[in-house]
Amino acid sequence: MIASIGMIAVASIALTLGGIAFWLLGVVAALFMMAEWSMLHGADAKTKRMTQFALSVPLALMAPASLILVVHDFFTLGLLAGAAFFVVITTRKPQLALGVLYCGLPVLALMIIRRQDDGILYTLWALSLVWACDIGAFFTGRTLRGPKLAPVISPNKTWSGLIGGVVLAGAVAAVLHTHYGLPMRLALATPVLAVLAQMGDLYESWLKRVAGVKDSGNILPGHGGVMDRLDGLVPVAPIAAALVLLPNLYA
Questions:
Q1: Measured between alpha carbons, how far is 251 from 243 in angstroms, rounded to an integer?
Q2: Rounded CA gap, 112 and 240, in Å?
Q3: Nearest Cα to 103, choosing from 35, 190, 201?
Q4: Which H or E run includes 157?
Q5: Residue pLDDT, tens place only, 51-62
Q6: Are 53 and 38 in contact (CB under 8 A)?
Q7: pLDDT over threshold 70, residue 249
Q8: According to the model, what pLDDT value does residue 220 have?
Q9: What are phi and psi of 154, to 5 degrees?
Q10: Which residues on neighbouring strands pair with residue 232, listed in sequence order?
Q11: Residue 251 C-alpha from the chain's centroid
Q12: Phi, psi of 67 (to 5 degrees)
């Protein structure tokens, strides 16, 4: 619990500061995730470093305009794909190329969200719905137990936990809508994104089961690796960014 509070505090401070602080936190998280992803897929130390170097190029272009003068999100997205292509032709391992996208896309999505008008609110919504879903699923599942959600992949997850996580995430979104002006479309999409967060969690659990490990790493006390904490955010962040940008497409 102490580690969880500490991580939420660090993320909240970086979110509030925005700019370089938020970008640096995203870069550090993505590089740790890339290392963990590589180890889960049996890469040696040299290959792991190479994948991190490849990912660092598009991550550098996600920096705020104060560092790189002009931000080109579409070009950066293409560069992420280019980095993934470089990794696959160099290593002959498509799963490592997938890791570049898995670790890089959520960071790009969060940087885009944070730069919008009301970016703090929108980014807080994307982060808090994942936090709330994790917390709600943990306590509801431990309390009510019941049928397993996916016993072969993750024996501890239950349907009651999934429902509890979705309900708490929806409640947080309702508070953000009522008291802070979160757009209705985002509040209504929250339960679906909460389910998506749980699917991201299950996907990472499947990766660990295939690799035969309990945690993706051991850098976070009581939590394992960075991937273990951000697995739910990986699928949520890109969809959240698309929903935030949706009105701009018709402007």
A1: 14
A2: 10
A3: 35
A4: strand 154-158
A5: 999 999 999 999
A6: no
A7: no
A8: 76
A9: -140, 95
A10: none
A11: 28
A12: -105, -35
pLDDT value, residue 155: 86
Structure tokens at 189: 């999409």
Place of tokens 């990912």: 55
Whether residue 26 contacts residue 107, with contact meaning beta carbons closer than 8 Å, is answered with: yes
Beta-carbon count within 10 A of 179 CB: 8
Tokens of 167: 């309900």
CA dist 50 → 84, 99, 105, 200 (Å):
11, 12, 18, 25
Give the list of residues 6+ apart from residue 247 with CB closer than 8 angstroms, or none: none
From CA 140, how far away is CA 126, in angstroms rounded?
A: 21
**DSSP summary character for residue 156:** E
The CA distance from 86 to 97, in Å, is 8
Cα distance between residue 186 and residue 208, in whole Å: 32
